[in-house]
Design a protein that fits this description.
The chain has 154 residues and is mainly alpha-helical. Helix content is 69%, strand content 4%. The chain has helices at 4-49, 59-69, 75-86, 92-99, 103-115, 131-146, and strands at residues 119-121, 127-129. A two-stranded antiparallel ribbon has the order 1-2. The longest helix has 46 residues, at 4-49. The radius of gyration is 33 Å and the shape is rod-shaped. The chain starts with a helix and ends in an 8-residue tail after the last helix. The relative contact order is 0.07.
């Protein structure tokens, strides 16, 4: 039968074995944490390339909120405003650069706006604001003041 001292020594040896196992496990966990951190940094870099920003903890929900909050830009209105402010006819590329939009899509939008009479193209592929758009801009200026239009609807 083991003596109390032998029992105590066996218990201490067991505790030492558990301590060594915990240290090995914590080293493994520390290494795993380093790998996870490297993956996070890689994904953060990818998000930055996409123009997004994320913080640790709620990165997924913050990314979804940013995507959900981003509304479509009113490209036709931006084009009209730019042409009105410039006071000169502009090429599609100049308009695209001014409103920070894709040149091909700007050209497509300008063509659609031409069909509705909002803009017109002169002989040198320069775009200018159309008569119907001037009326729209004037209406917007009147309603921007107090939210009510001075024109009467019959």
């Amino acid at each position: 039968m083991p003596t109390p001292v032998e029992k105590a020594l066996a218990y201490l040896e067991g505790l030492e074995a558990e301590r060594q196992a915990a240290l090995a496990l914590s080293e493994q966990k520390a290494e795993e944490a380093k790998l996870i951190k490297a993956r996070q940094e890689g994904f953060r870099a990818a998000l930055e390339m996409l123009g997004r920003e994320a913080t640790v903890g709620n990165a997924g929900s913050e990314f979804k909120e940013a995507r959900r909050r981003r509304a479509r830009r009113p490209i036709p209105q931006l084009i009209l405003r730019e042409l009105a402010f410039s006071g000169e006819a502009m090429t599609a590329r100049q308009v695209a650069k001014a409103i920070d939009y894709i040149p091909e899509r700007t050209e497509m939008t300008l063509r659609r706006m031409e069909e509705s009479g909002q803009v017109h193209r002169n002989g040198r592929d320069r775009w200018a604001i159309g008569i119907t758009a001037i009326a729209q801009l004037n209406e917007a200026a009147v309603t921007a003041d107090n939210g009510k239009s001075t024109t009467t609807v019959r």
